[in-house]
Amino acid sequence: MGNACKERCEQMELFTNNVSVYKKSNTLINSKGNVSLMGLKLFTIAIMNARYDEAVNMTYAVIGTGQLRSLLGNTGSSLYTNIRDQIENGHKNSGSLLDWRIIYEDKAKKEFIISTVITDAAFRKGKLTIYFNNNIKDYVINLTKDFTLLNCREQLSLNSHYSFRLYEIFKEKLNKGKYINTRNGVIDQNIIQWDVNITELKLILGIIDQKESVEIRKILLGGDINYNEIEVLSRQSGNKKYKTYASFKQNALVKAISEINEKTGIHVDFIERKSGLGGKVSTIEFYINTKDTKKPAAKESEEAITKEDGFKDITKDISDLTGLSEPESRKIAEAADYDFEKVKKAWGLPSRKNINNITGWMISAIKRNYDVTADKKPIRGNAQYDYMMHSDFNYDEEWLLDN
Fold first, then answer.
1. Cα separation, 317 vs 178, whole angstroms
2. Which of 306, 320, 317, 323 is nearest to 341 (CA)?
3. Is residue 227 within 8 Å of residue 199, measured between CB atoms?
4. What kind of architecture, by CATH, is found in domain 1-157?
5. Per-residue pLDDT reduced to its tens digit, 310-348
6. Of the candidates 165, 186, 168, 166, which has an alpha carbon nearest to the alpha carbon of residue 177?
């Protein structure tokens, strides 16, 4: 019980000191499930207030209306009614908070979790009490490793379910990627690449819900996941949300990333990858970076504008050289510190001709200073990872707090 109290005090100390950060388990961040935006926000506030009572074996959170109003702001109706409706009925496109089930699997350990998140809730005397399922207790309190520090004020300012979920996922990928780079001695690679299948992304965002079909759950807990089959099963179950990629991109993905880039301390770009007959978009490559918060002094403004114009010219030169898109060329330019000679040297490597993901390879080649005369065998760049399984990278609390 003492550790639980210490954990809760640390969470609240971070928040009350205007740092506004809290810990969230990477398992919860990367689990698949569907709940409304309000449900996600309530869950975030509950995590910040979570405690464990050993005497009754309960994990719960007590949240006062003052904290709820401060963090949620204007909810569009009375706070009591909004919370009651969310817990009782949920949203038209998602279940109530009490219906929320998540699924997570670690194939390396041959372990999986399918669990409800919240078992009970009560609102009495101006306080909301939320009871967590004890099966996820270890992912709520006493977190010392495999967690991500999130800025709750940034996250709670987001007005879309998709931007809310993507924000915490991007933060997790960013932290983990930087940790791996540091561990491998790559200290100057700030851009982290995350590749994800479109259907997998829909599952993570709750657009496709594993509750739709027993067959979907079986596939998710099987061996190699057939995402095309999951798409078919979802449509057969009556799910009509974003049936085309164009609709998903326009109404969910682009809007969410735009809001994240505008309101938070991270910046995200993405590139579409096509495959199969007809060249349909099957994979998204996200490029995640922390925003540069340094602003040029007034006397440096003219120099900064001139430099920015030069950066645009170099990006265009890279695009002309490689035939890559402007976002891809910009990532390569940044990796090369806008030194076009470095880009030309990497592009001249004969081994480039055997590479499918040329953007990731170019970034890796530049960062690793490939010798054009030696024609070394290309090595997969540290900026590119598939993070579906997370237990291999249990970075600890000390590293996270220092970075």
1. 29
2. 317
3. yes
4. Orthogonal Bundle (1.10)
5. 566 788 888 888 888 888 888 888 888 888 888 888 888
6. 186
HSE at residue 167, side-chain half, CA atoms within 13 A, is 32
- Which regions of the chain carry the CATH code 1.10.10.10? 1-157
CA 369-374-377 angle, 5° bins: 75
* Residues contacting 163, CB < 8 A, separation 6+: 255, 256, 257, 259, 260
Tens digits of per-residue pLDDT, 187-233? 666 788 899 999 889 988 888 877 777 888 788 777 678 888 888 88
**Confidence (pTM):** 0.68
Of 148, 212, 145, 141, nearest in space to 175 by CA:
148
Determine the Cα–Cα distance for residues 377 and 361; give it in Å rounded to an integer: 11
**Lowest mean pLDDT, pick from 115-129, 180-194, 238-252:** 180-194
Backbone angles phi, psi at 230, to 5 degrees: -65, -40
